[in-house]
Inverse folding.
């Protein structure tokens, strides 16, 4: 099985922590040069220095930009691809705040749409010419199991994730013949600060941490939370030459939590 990414350049969005950070490690381990993107310049600088290296031409970089600022994002990514074509793109960012959908403000939907759908569109548009030229492209979108089963109390997120899934499926068919694949990863409950903040919100509402975590785990057949590295492993596989015929799919990494058949 060919998992080698030597000579490939990966752009990982939302890379300073959690699933993005773990993904950067996996891709670098397979030989890719990685450009890290998020808002925290200091964290990204430290991470770029920590990533595995040593393959021919392997070089890690970072770019600090807010994905909510579409113009700044477009400028930043234009610079990244101007230096070195991107072959592997991981579209990932922080999850929208929780809450019921009925009370969500219009601005919350607009912000989440900008941060997820518009950001993915802008970054992807910048990366596509290089992928086309190399006849090698891997676009992996980190979204959520909510595209199969909407999650209680994540109203804005459920709405915007579905839009991302529709965008990705459409794109996957448009670029498939050019050696480019587009797939979605649907993480289940994964031990990151995103999960901690969702647990904290329930703790503030008066429940104990243990009670909240046991409540979440009751729906997970594996009986535990996932590790970001377990999500990153699938992203790295989808980025590899071995995964060239996997396209337009949404794959859950959730310990068996999603109950639907497709
Ligand atoms: N963890 C879970 O259990 C779980 C389950 C289902 C879905 N997901 C989804 O999977 C994705 C990744 O999750 P995670 O748990 O790894 O999240 P996380 O630990 O909160 O990390 C989010 C990353 O996105 C970056 N980010 C946030 N807002 C940004 C912005 N405006 N511009 C640029 N970068 C931004 C953050 O870096 P900076 O702060 O440096 O910008 C960070 O690196 C999220 O969309 C999350 O909702 C997670």
């Amino acid at each position: 099985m060919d998992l080698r990414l030597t000579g490939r350049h990966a752009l990982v969005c939302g890379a300073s922590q959690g699933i993005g950070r773990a993904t950067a490690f996996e891709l670098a381990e397979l030989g890719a040069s990685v450009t890290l993107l998020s808002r925290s310049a200091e964290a990204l600088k430290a991470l770029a220095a920590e990533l595995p290296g040593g393959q021919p031409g392997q070089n890690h970089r970072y770019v600090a930009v807010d994905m909510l600022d579409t113009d700044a994002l477009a400028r930043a990514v234009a610079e990244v691809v101007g230096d070195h074509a991107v072959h592997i793109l991981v579209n990932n960012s922080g999850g929208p705040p929780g809450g019921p959908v009925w009370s969500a403000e219009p601005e919350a939907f607009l912000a989440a749409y900008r941060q997820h759908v518009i950001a993915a569109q802008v970054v992807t548009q910048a990366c596509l010419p290089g992928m086309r030229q190399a006849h090698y492209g891997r676009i992996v979108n980190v979204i959520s199991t909510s595209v199969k089963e909407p999650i209680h109390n994540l109203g804005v997120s459920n709405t915007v994730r579905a839009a991302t899934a529709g965008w990705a499926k459409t794109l996957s068919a448009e670029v498939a013949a050019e050696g480019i694949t587009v797939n979605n990863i649907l993480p289940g409950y994964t031990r990151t600060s995103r999960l901690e903040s969702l647990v904290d919100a329930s703790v503030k509402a008066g429940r104990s941490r243990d009670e909240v975590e046991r409540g979440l785990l009751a729906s997970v057949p594996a009986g535990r939370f996932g590790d970001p590295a377990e999500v990153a492993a699938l992203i790295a596989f989808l980025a590899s030459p071995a995964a060239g015929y996997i396209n337009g799919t949404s794959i859950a990494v959730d310990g068996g939590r999603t109950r639907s058949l497709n």
